[in-house]
Design a protein that fits this description.
This protein is mainly alpha-helical. Among the domains are: 163 residues; 30 residues. Helix content is 57%, strand content 9%. It has eleven helices and seven strands. Helix 7 packs parallel to helix 9. About 5% of the residues have low confidence.
């Protein structure tokens, strides 16, 4: 009889230990009660795996194709299931690094366990920060990065997220707000990974992705970031492409303003007009 291993819903790790009546993941520190864990298994939102490793490397192509098909069909349980199988065969697979935590994050979109969702966001950010380490420069890796950029927009489905942070006195508080700022942090982490890759291995495709993601960042409502830094990145990417491709035409207007900046300028103009109106009325009364 094959013994079944407990698997963390958040990160896929099998390093589950029992402490003080809870099941705790040794990788991402997600915490489950026995009732929560049983419910996840019964509902089918958690795949319990067997404690054995897949030695037949011929199955790699089958599993990766199944994972891609599940990703296309937005079957997030299927993506995590096949990514775990691929990871057993090839632990340093770039597709698994990116799409497994992404799928686990998407599985939390209807969850009311906000700690679990917060942990999933952190695991996903950590996986993005490791992209440059697994980059091999192959056309396959380039295709994976391009696909990842295309599906990031699915995170906009999250209407709100409850997350932890420190107030001005340093006390930890729980905040409820839109995903805009976290979405911006994910885009920024992705942009910096692209920059690290292109600094050591030029790719016009990735340079164009940097420009696209920077422009996307400027369109996120209420996101806080330094617009000057990303305007410089856009200009740098345009110039780099032009150096390697003389036929490339740099757009006339490359500088962008964030929605926060545009909103500030509009408010400033409205306030200026209002103040001018008061001054004119006051001047007319005097004369």
């Amino acid at each position: 009889m094959v013994k079944e291993a407990l698997i963390c819903q958040n990160c896929g790790s099998t390093e589950m230990t029992r402490t003080d009546g809870f099941l705790i993941c040794g990788h991402c520190r997600a915490k489950y009660t026995d009732e929560q864990y049983k419910k996840l298994v019964i509902d089918g939102s958690l795949n319990v795996i067997h404690k054995h490793r897949i030695d037949n490397t011929d199955k790699f192509d089958t599993h990766i194709q199944n994972a891609r098909r599940a990703l296309k069909n937005e079957d997030w349980n299927g993506v995590t299931h096949y990514c775990v199988a691929v990871r057993d065969i090839k632990p340093d697979c770039l597709e698994v690094l990116i799409f497994e935590p992404f799928a686990r994050l998407m599985l939390t979109q209807n969850s009311m366990d906000f700690d679990l969702r917060y942990s999933a966001v952190n695991v996903f950010l950590n996986s993005i920060n490791a992209i440059s380490e697994l980059w091999s420069g192959s056309p396959e890796d380039e295709a994976v990065i391009t696909l990842f950029a295309d599906i990031l927009d699915k995170l906009r489905r999250f209407k709100f997220i409850q997350y932890k942070g420190n107030d001005k006195y340093g006390r930890q508080q729980v905040y409820k707000g839109t995903l805009n700022q976290i979405y911006a942090e994910i885009i920024i982490a992705f942009i910096w990974e692209l920059r690290q890759i292109t600094d050591k291995d030029y790719s016009e495709t990735l340079m164009r992705l940097i420009i696209r993601e920077c422009n996307l960042l400027f369109d996120i409502k209420k996101a806080k970031f330094k617009t000057r830094v990303f305007n410089k990145l856009i200009i740098h990417a345009h110039n780099k492409i032009r150096e390697n491709n003389p036929n490339y035409l740099i757009p006339q207007k490359t500088k962008r303003y964030s929605r926060r900046q545009v909103s500030f300028f509009v408010k400033l103009i409205v306030f200026g007009v209002f103040a001018l109106g008061i001054f004119v009325c006051y001047a007319l009364e005097i004369f």
